[in-house]
Model the fold of this input.
Amino acid sequence: MAETALGHYASALEYLVTARQEMDRQRVLRDWYWRMPLELALTDLYLAQGDLTQAWSQAEQFLQVTLATAERTWQALAWDAKARVALVTRDLGQAQVCIAQAVSTMEGFEVPTAAWHVHATAAALSERTGNATALAHHRSLSRSTIVQLAQSLGAEERVRTTFLSAPRVRTVLGDTGSILVSATGT
Done:
Protein backbone atom coordinates (compact mmCIF):
# COMPACT_ATOMS: atom_id res chain seq x y z
CA MET A 1 0.00 0.00 0.00
CA ALA A 2 2.84 2.36 0.81
CA GLU A 3 4.53 1.64 -2.51
CA THR A 4 1.27 2.38 -4.34
CA ALA A 5 0.86 5.65 -2.43
CA LEU A 6 4.40 6.61 -3.43
CA GLY A 7 3.67 5.82 -7.07
CA HIS A 8 6.01 2.81 -7.14
CA TYR A 9 3.50 0.62 -8.94
CA ALA A 10 5.87 -2.08 -10.21
CA SER A 11 7.29 -2.81 -6.76
CA ALA A 12 3.82 -2.58 -5.20
CA LEU A 13 2.54 -5.19 -7.63
CA GLU A 14 5.55 -7.39 -6.98
CA TYR A 15 5.06 -7.26 -3.20
CA LEU A 16 1.32 -7.82 -3.36
CA VAL A 17 1.48 -10.69 -5.84
CA THR A 18 4.24 -12.31 -3.79
CA ALA A 19 2.14 -11.95 -0.65
CA ARG A 20 -0.86 -13.51 -2.40
CA GLN A 21 1.26 -16.39 -3.71
CA GLU A 22 2.68 -17.05 -0.25
CA MET A 23 -0.80 -16.97 1.27
CA ASP A 24 -2.02 -19.43 -1.36
CA ARG A 25 0.99 -21.69 -0.86
CA GLN A 26 1.07 -21.65 2.93
CA ARG A 27 -2.24 -21.20 4.71
CA VAL A 28 -2.02 -19.77 8.22
CA LEU A 29 -4.39 -19.12 11.08
CA ARG A 30 -6.75 -16.23 10.27
CA ASP A 31 -5.58 -16.28 6.66
CA TRP A 32 -9.08 -15.18 5.64
CA TYR A 33 -8.65 -11.95 7.59
CA TRP A 34 -5.32 -10.98 6.00
CA ARG A 35 -6.74 -11.52 2.51
CA MET A 36 -9.06 -8.54 2.91
CA PRO A 37 -6.36 -5.84 3.17
CA LEU A 38 -4.45 -7.61 0.39
CA GLU A 39 -7.47 -7.48 -1.92
CA LEU A 40 -8.04 -3.81 -1.09
CA ALA A 41 -4.38 -3.01 -1.75
CA LEU A 42 -4.53 -4.72 -5.15
CA THR A 43 -7.75 -2.89 -6.04
CA ASP A 44 -6.21 0.45 -5.11
CA LEU A 45 -3.05 -0.38 -7.07
CA TYR A 46 -4.93 -1.19 -10.28
CA LEU A 47 -7.07 1.91 -9.83
CA ALA A 48 -3.98 4.08 -9.33
CA GLN A 49 -2.40 2.58 -12.44
CA GLY A 50 -5.51 3.32 -14.45
CA ASP A 51 -6.03 -0.35 -15.27
CA LEU A 52 -9.80 -0.10 -14.87
CA THR A 53 -10.61 -3.58 -16.18
CA GLN A 54 -8.26 -5.16 -13.65
CA ALA A 55 -9.44 -2.73 -10.93
CA TRP A 56 -13.07 -3.74 -11.46
CA SER A 57 -12.21 -7.44 -11.43
CA GLN A 58 -10.09 -7.00 -8.31
CA ALA A 59 -12.79 -4.96 -6.55
CA GLU A 60 -15.27 -7.75 -7.27
CA GLN A 61 -12.84 -10.31 -5.87
CA PHE A 62 -12.33 -8.10 -2.80
CA LEU A 63 -16.08 -7.94 -2.28
CA GLN A 64 -16.47 -11.73 -2.57
CA VAL A 65 -13.73 -12.29 0.02
CA THR A 66 -15.42 -9.89 2.46
CA LEU A 67 -18.92 -11.27 1.94
CA ALA A 68 -17.66 -14.64 3.18
CA THR A 69 -17.08 -12.98 6.59
CA ALA A 70 -19.12 -11.01 9.10
CA GLU A 71 -16.65 -8.10 8.94
CA ARG A 72 -18.83 -5.04 8.30
CA THR A 73 -15.87 -2.67 8.04
CA TRP A 74 -14.25 -4.69 5.27
CA GLN A 75 -17.54 -5.30 3.49
CA ALA A 76 -18.26 -1.56 3.43
CA LEU A 77 -14.73 -0.89 2.19
CA ALA A 78 -15.20 -3.44 -0.59
CA TRP A 79 -18.47 -1.82 -1.71
CA ASP A 80 -16.67 1.53 -1.54
CA ALA A 81 -13.84 0.20 -3.72
CA LYS A 82 -16.35 -0.94 -6.34
CA ALA A 83 -18.04 2.47 -6.18
CA ARG A 84 -14.71 4.25 -6.67
CA VAL A 85 -13.94 2.14 -9.74
CA ALA A 86 -17.44 2.76 -11.09
CA LEU A 87 -16.95 6.52 -10.57
CA VAL A 88 -13.70 6.51 -12.54
CA THR A 89 -15.34 4.55 -15.36
CA ARG A 90 -18.27 7.02 -15.26
CA ASP A 91 -20.78 4.28 -14.48
CA LEU A 92 -22.74 6.48 -12.09
CA GLY A 93 -25.62 4.01 -11.83
CA GLN A 94 -23.28 1.26 -10.65
CA ALA A 95 -21.52 3.69 -8.31
CA GLN A 96 -24.90 4.59 -6.80
CA VAL A 97 -25.76 0.91 -6.25
CA CYS A 98 -22.40 0.23 -4.63
CA ILE A 99 -22.58 3.25 -2.33
CA ALA A 100 -26.11 2.31 -1.28
CA GLN A 101 -24.81 -1.18 -0.43
CA ALA A 102 -21.88 0.27 1.52
CA VAL A 103 -24.15 2.57 3.53
CA SER A 104 -26.59 -0.28 4.16
CA THR A 105 -23.74 -2.53 5.30
CA MET A 106 -22.69 0.05 7.89
CA GLU A 107 -26.16 0.70 9.30
CA GLY A 108 -26.38 -0.16 12.98
CA PHE A 109 -22.63 -0.73 13.32
CA GLU A 110 -19.74 1.44 14.53
CA VAL A 111 -17.34 1.25 11.60
CA PRO A 112 -15.59 4.62 11.50
CA THR A 113 -12.58 3.44 9.49
CA ALA A 114 -14.97 2.45 6.70
CA ALA A 115 -17.52 5.21 7.26
CA TRP A 116 -15.26 8.12 6.37
CA HIS A 117 -14.21 6.39 3.14
CA VAL A 118 -17.77 5.48 2.16
CA HIS A 119 -19.09 8.97 2.85
CA ALA A 120 -16.16 10.56 1.00
CA THR A 121 -16.96 8.45 -2.06
CA ALA A 122 -20.67 9.18 -1.66
CA ALA A 123 -19.83 12.90 -1.58
CA ALA A 124 -17.78 12.55 -4.77
CA LEU A 125 -20.69 10.74 -6.43
CA SER A 126 -23.13 13.39 -5.23
CA GLU A 127 -20.89 16.10 -6.61
CA ARG A 128 -20.69 14.30 -9.95
CA THR A 129 -24.49 13.93 -10.12
CA GLY A 130 -25.14 17.50 -8.96
CA ASN A 131 -26.95 16.53 -5.76
CA ALA A 132 -25.88 19.39 -3.48
CA THR A 133 -27.92 18.19 -0.48
CA ALA A 134 -26.39 14.71 -0.54
CA LEU A 135 -22.94 16.21 -1.19
CA ALA A 136 -23.16 18.37 1.94
CA HIS A 137 -24.55 15.48 4.01
CA HIS A 138 -21.89 12.93 3.03
CA ARG A 139 -19.03 15.42 3.13
CA SER A 140 -20.08 16.43 6.65
CA LEU A 141 -20.29 12.79 7.81
CA SER A 142 -16.91 11.96 6.30
CA ARG A 143 -15.23 15.01 7.83
CA SER A 144 -16.73 14.51 11.28
CA THR A 145 -15.70 10.84 11.29
CA ILE A 146 -12.14 11.75 10.32
CA VAL A 147 -11.99 14.31 13.12
CA GLN A 148 -13.33 11.75 15.62
CA LEU A 149 -10.75 9.20 14.49
CA ALA A 150 -7.96 11.78 14.77
CA GLN A 151 -9.08 12.78 18.25
CA SER A 152 -9.24 9.13 19.31
CA LEU A 153 -5.51 8.85 18.65
CA GLY A 154 -5.02 10.97 21.77
CA ALA A 155 -1.42 11.42 22.75
CA GLU A 156 -0.16 9.59 19.67
CA GLU A 157 0.67 12.90 17.99
CA ARG A 158 2.84 11.50 15.19
CA VAL A 159 0.21 8.90 14.24
CA ARG A 160 -2.51 11.55 14.27
CA THR A 161 -0.43 13.89 12.12
CA THR A 162 0.34 11.11 9.66
CA PHE A 163 -3.34 10.19 9.42
CA LEU A 164 -4.42 13.80 8.90
CA SER A 165 -1.69 14.28 6.28
CA ALA A 166 -2.77 11.31 4.15
CA PRO A 167 -3.77 12.47 0.66
CA ARG A 168 -7.35 11.19 0.73
CA VAL A 169 -7.92 12.57 4.25
CA ARG A 170 -6.57 15.98 3.19
CA THR A 171 -8.85 15.93 0.16
CA VAL A 172 -11.88 15.29 2.35
CA LEU A 173 -10.92 17.84 5.00
CA GLY A 174 -9.76 20.56 2.62
CA ASP A 175 -8.56 23.62 4.54
CA THR A 176 -9.79 22.08 7.79
CA GLY A 177 -7.06 19.43 7.47
CA SER A 178 -4.27 22.00 7.56
CA ILE A 179 -5.76 23.53 10.69
CA LEU A 180 -6.05 20.13 12.39
CA VAL A 181 -2.49 19.13 11.45
CA SER A 182 -1.20 22.48 12.74
CA ALA A 183 -3.12 21.96 15.98
CA THR A 184 -1.12 18.79 16.64
CA GLY A 185 1.95 20.90 17.17
CA THR A 186 4.02 19.48 14.32
Observations:
- The chain has two domains: 1-69, 92-186.
- The chain has a mean pLDDT of 91.
- The two ends are 25 Å apart (CA to CA).
